[in-house]
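Structural prep section.
Before we set up the soaks we want a predicted structure of the protein with beta-D-fructofuranose in place, mainly to decide which crystallisation condition to try first. Input record follows.
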Amino acid sequence: MKSKILSEARDYEAEEIKKINRGEKPTFHLAAPVGWINDPNGFSVFQKEYHLFYQYHPYSSKWGPMHWGHSKTKDFIQWEQLPVALAPDESYDSAGCFSGSAIEEDGQHVLVYTGVIEERSKHRLERVQQLQCIAMGNGIDYKKLECNPILTADMISESISEADFRDPKIWKHGSEFYMVVSCCNSEKNGEIALLTSSDLKQWTFQNMLVKNDGTYGKMWECPDFFELSNQYVLLTSPQKMKADGLEFHSGDGTIYFVGQFDYHTGIFQHGVAKQIDYGFDFYAPQTTKAMDGRQIMIAWMHSWDNEIKLEEQKWNGIMTIPREIELRDGKLFQNPVREIAQYYSNKIEFVKNHMSGNMELEGIRGRELDLEITVCDGAYEFFEVQLAKNEKYKTVCRYESKTGILTFDRMYSGICRDIVSVRKLQISPGGEEIKIRVLLDKYSVELFVNDGAYAFSSLLYVPSEAQDINFFVEGELTAHIVKHDIRIVDKAQIGKEV
Ligand code: FRU
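Run finished without errors. Recording the tokens verbatim:
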């Protein structure tokens, strides 16, 4: 039986989607169906397809009582919209179904999420309680279990705040289920608790996987923990991070730890925190293991700090391109899923191109494309790629050869608010060449530097007429440049245009 709240959300979504012009949405990124989306949730394989849920408020383009929106894909590029999966319709989640995760178990799709309860008096919010809950379903309809909530903060410790206890990530190892969940201790620092269960319903607290002394922000949201190349990786999104040199500049940022995990003791021995993405708009990443073994990460391409959207849009929020992640020498490398190449068209290539001063390259323009620039050699001070450009707008990516600093400047990217527009990133030499791969999809840009050693994600607010791409070189250099447009065409056409 669907609740009235869920049925209304489904009906509303189905009607409102029809009113949105598909052309105003990104071409190859997942975007809010209608209304608002934030964190990716429940990224998982179910019946040989990839499902992605997301924090969702269908009724306005601002955050509100959280539902779980739902999409699925076979190739991480083309997404099929499915009806709203969860709505805040139970006593234990009446103020929202917050972030969580999913696994496939015994033919069922198991969702684990945070239920939120609020108690209000006439003038203020008196109490917030966050609890972990479970729902099971068939890939479309999900039933919340009678045993909910399955986990409350006091089951971990008396000193854990019941108001900041959220974002469970579940996985199975052998015959046991494991979960990591964000907690907040009495010093108001985030910690990640590890729990186990043999039946999904009864959970036992093991230990704190990682403790936070406040060096990396306060509350740590949306943990993810997984094996990669015989090591373990913990991803989390801390709030209120403080900048350190050129690192950790997004107040609400994302970090990862790499280390060894022992299932017998529950101990995770890890190195220092590193930044996942250096851009303005990247939060709450979540991963899943693809059917061919690749670990795929997707994140909300947005930020709680730069919460802006184009005025006229009735939808707000997009996800990053799903990224293949790998560990090389303890460092996370990320690159767009290889499936993107199936959607390439209009290839333009410049081999050993001599470049100096201001240049346009024939055929290199557009707003939905994959562009790779490899600077092979030269005597140059800096080079720039100016994207989404016309007389009024430009978004600049500049690399200085002496310092190895990459600067991203969105001062003229259509932002009508006084927010941070310039960010710098220190590139460690990755050999002789510097490689910058740019994914542009209408209102977003993602950079992948030196084969994925650094990633940078940012939204743009530039009208679609600004299609030019210019290059500027102070000095001279030789570069290899390849551009592919990205088009979602009729399945029968795929491959024919390349
Ligand atoms: C992270 C987050 C989560 C929470 C969700 C609510 O962006 O704050 O911690 O579950 O968003 O929408």
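Observations: The longest helix spans residues 4-19.
Flagged for discussion at group meeting.
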